[in-house]
């Protein structure tokens, strides 16, 4: 009888363990707040969300560092240690992942309803390349809403994070509307409310899908960005390279090169007199944003304007900014970067080596392309993660057929 009781007890414990371990986050367990979007938070006198603790980062960014004496190229310097005259080929430039996590909220019902929230099962990204990137702009999340766990992981690796203003292409906005126009306008009139909120939640910038119609949001976005950049730069000013005493956190308001001072949408302008007010306060030279250039910036591009990275770098220096605050955009959805060929989109990767510009990776509005292709060699968790890791580390055309190799 004792043996039977022991057997029954072990069976019960095993079944209990299995039922406990099978628990995982489900859609709806955590509320993203008012209407699923923090955009209108600042329209009300007070804001409460019972689940707000899930959206507060409690880890400040760690300082990044390198030991130059261990480098193969002894002349290689990090972007934060750049000085005028440093050869572009010797600069370790910033890399911005301006991508969703898994699948974004527009398609969340299909496969991944959790975006950057952890879910406890293999149905979310397991990113392991933090050491190579400097900033992650989350396209999959709502405005002013960053899951604290994601920001914590990024910060532990010295990577800054930003949320996203998902305006529509050629969208028209007004200061009195109930969408982006009214929200950005109200924030620009009360920037302290925005900066206090961002600092409290551990957000390091705002990303702008700036391709709206005309100039409806320009002035208000510039005002908001200037306040946010100043607040975050001040908050993280003590996070420095222990050797050079330079700040190592890429606190970027990512600004898509999709509008000018006088018109929009208008792409591939680069940093010039028609766009510089978004980059910097041209009167005071105070920082406003970092530029994320559209994908036709190289000397083979058919954009009607020719290459614009060299002049953009010169203009950034003239304003006292680091030219590596300009990101040369790569469209992962378009299978970039191309490594060979002579067409419009070719040779950008090799061309970039000689330019003072950082690397920006864009991956679609709702889907991380690395994540989407993880089932190429099979759908079981092991093969999916192996394939995903290969995609992160190598270009897809070089990936072996068997992901287990």
Description:
This protein is α/β, with parallel strands linked by helices and about 400 residues long. It has one domain: TIM Barrel (Alpha-Beta Barrel), CATH 3.20.20. Helices cover about 25% and strands about 10% of the residues. The protein is built from 10 helices and 10 strands. It has helices at about 1-20, 150-155, 180-190, 190-200, 220-235, 275-280, 310-320, 350, 370, 380-395; strands spanning about 75-80, 90, 95-100, 135-140, 160-165, 205-210, 255, 290-295, 325-330, 360. The strands form 2 sheets. The chain has an 8-stranded parallel sheet. The chain is globular. The N and C termini lie far apart (about 50 Å).
Number of helices: 10
Q: In order across it, which strands form the biggest sheet? A: 6-5-4-3-10-9-8-7
- Per CATH, the superfamily is Glycosidases
Largest sheet: 8 strands, parallel
What is the beta-strand fraction?
5-15%
Shape: globular
């Amino acid at each position: 009888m004792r043996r039977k009781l022991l057997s029954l007890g072990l069976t019960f414990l095993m079944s209990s363990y299995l039922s406990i371990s099978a628990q995982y986050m489900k859609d709806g367990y955590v509320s993203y707040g008012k209407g699923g979007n923090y955009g209108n938070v600042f329209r009300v006198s007070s804001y409460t969300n019972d689940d707000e603790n899930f959206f507060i980062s409690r880890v400040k960014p760690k300082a990044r560092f390198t030991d130059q004496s261990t480098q193969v190229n002894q002349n290689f310097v990090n972007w934060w240690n750049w000085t005028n005259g440093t050869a572009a080929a010797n600069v370790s430039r910033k890399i911005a992942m301006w991508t969703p996590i898994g699948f974004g909220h527009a398609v969340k019902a299909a496969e991944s309803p959790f975006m950057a929230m952890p879910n406890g099962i293999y149905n979310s990204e397991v990113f392991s390349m933090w050491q190579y990137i400097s900033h992650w702009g989350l396209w999959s999340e709502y405005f002013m809403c960053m899951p604290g766990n994601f920001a914590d992981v990024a910060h532990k690796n010295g990577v800054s994070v930003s949320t996203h203003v998902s305006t529509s292409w050629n969208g028209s906005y007004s200061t009195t509307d109930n969408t982006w126009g009214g929200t950005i306008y109200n924030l620009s009139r009360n920037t302290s409310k925005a900066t206090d909120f961002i600092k409290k939640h551990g957000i390091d910038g705002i990303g702008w899908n700036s391709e709206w119609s005309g100039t409806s949001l320009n002035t208000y976005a510039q005002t908001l960005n200037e306040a946010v950049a100043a607040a975050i730069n001040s908050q993280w000013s003590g996070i420095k390279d222990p050797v050079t005493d330079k700040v190592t956190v890429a606190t970027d308001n990512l600004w898509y090169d999709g509008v000018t001072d006088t018109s929009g949408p208008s792409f591939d302008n680069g940093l010039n007199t028609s766009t510089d007010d978004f980059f910097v306060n041209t009167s005071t030279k105070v920082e406003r944003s970092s530029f994320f250039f559209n994908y036709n910036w190289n000397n083979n591009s058919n954009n009607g304007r020719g290459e614009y990275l060299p002049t953009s770098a010169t203009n950034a220096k003239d304003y006292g900014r680091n030219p590596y605050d300009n990101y040369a955009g790569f469209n992962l959805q378009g299978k970039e970067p191309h490594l060979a060929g002579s067409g419009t989109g070719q040779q950008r990767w090799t061309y970039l080596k000689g330019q003072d510009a950082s690397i920006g990776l864009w991956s679609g509005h709702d889907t991380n392309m690395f994540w989407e292709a993880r089932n190429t060699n099979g759908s079981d968790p092991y093969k999916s993660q192996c394939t995903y890791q290969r995609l992160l580390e190598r270009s897809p055309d070089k990936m072996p057929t068997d992901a287990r190799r």
